[in-house]
Amino acid sequence: MSKLLILGAGGHGRVVADAALSTGNWDEIAFLDNNNELNDVLGKAVVGGFESYMDHREDYSAAIVAIGNNVTRMIWLDRLERAGYEIPSIIHPSSTISRFSQIERGSVIMAGVVVNASARVGKGCILNTSSSIDHDCILENGVHISPGVNVCGTVHVKSCSWLGVGSKVLNNVTIGFNVIVAAGTIVIKDIPDNVMVAGMPAKIKKNLEMKSDVGKDFFIPASYEWERNEVRTRSV
Ligand SMILES: CC(C)(COP(=O)(O)OP(=O)(O)OC[C@H]1O[C@@H](n2cnc3c(N)ncnc32)[C@H](O)[C@@H]1OP(=O)(O)O)[C@@H](O)C(=O)NCCC(=O)NCCS
Which of these, 26, 33, 89, lies nearest to 56 by C-alpha position? Predict the structure, then answer.
């Protein structure tokens, strides 16, 4: 029996649960959430707070993190992996994922997403509703692509960056580590690490700080990992 534990029962958690149920791959789904007032969500039980994750290890073989904040999501993903949970990727059946693309564990792909050939999506990414990732793109670990974003071919998005709703990125651009691309922005050239950009074309509006104790290296994908993993298709 395949049982999935979802960390986070908020709006994003519900969308992740819905996508997971749509795959037909899970016999049972439950949530962990720190809101004590939540007992069930979408008819699925909330079985404890986040910190109780070790208590459910025997009952749930697999777990996924449904937290929007990129840094927090990656830290919890790491804890779950260390605890021995299987970390699946959740791929909504209405998405179109090239058989020649690669989707790493812990990533969630929502309804209507398109991922084209030779794109590589790292660990713990969110590809939100109706976004598109074109050929040869690299999304490193912990990237969030919001609804309706279009990323053209051969774009590299470094770890923990967030592309806001409806933004667009032209071909061959690199977006740095821990970047926020504001809603509706058009990115036409490379963006450095740790900034917020907005506008058309994108201009730097703010410098950002990585608020985390674990340090930048924690989020960077090891290059060997990309090569070692087999190509995965939508049936995962
Ligand atoms: C970028 C964002 C996070 C705001 O960040 P913030 O640090 O609070 O930014 P501020 O509101 O202080 O704005 C800073 C500057 O950026 C500008 N700005 C912010 N968002 C902008 C946008 N989408 N387009 C153009 N300019 C924008 C502000 O006007 C301000 O400009 P100024 O300094 O010239 O006056 C927010 O505007 C945004 O775009 N969120 C994305 C929401 C989203 O995608 N949700 C989907 C979740 S699934």
Answer: 33
Residue 88 preceded by cis peptide, ω within 30: no
Q: How far is the CA of 224 from the centre of ligand 1 (A)?
A: 36
Token pair 């036409």: residue: 188
Query: CA angle, 65 as apex, 62 and 66 as ends, to 5°?
Result: 130
Q: What is the set of domains in the chain, with CATH numbers?
A: 3-88 (3.40.50.20), 91-212 (2.160.10.10)
Ligand 1 neighbourhood includes 74 CB (under 6 angstroms):
no
> Bridge-partner residues for 163, per DSSP?
145, 181
| Dist CA 137 CA 212 (whole Å) | 27
Instruction: Indicate whether residue 184 lines ligand 1 (CB < 6 A).
Output: yes
**Distance from the alpha carbon of residue 164 to the mean position of ligand 1, in angstroms:** 9
Return per-residue pLDDT of the chain as tens, 236 residues: 799 999 999 999 999 999 999 999 999 999 999 999 999 999 999 999 999 999 999 999 999 999 999 999 999 999 999 999 999 999 999 999 999 999 999 999 999 999 999 999 999 999 999 999 999 999 999 999 999 999 999 999 999 999 999 999 999 999 999 999 999 999 999 999 999 999 999 999 999 988 777 777 788 776 545 554 544 443 33
For ligand 1, whether the C-beta of 111 sits within 6 Å is no
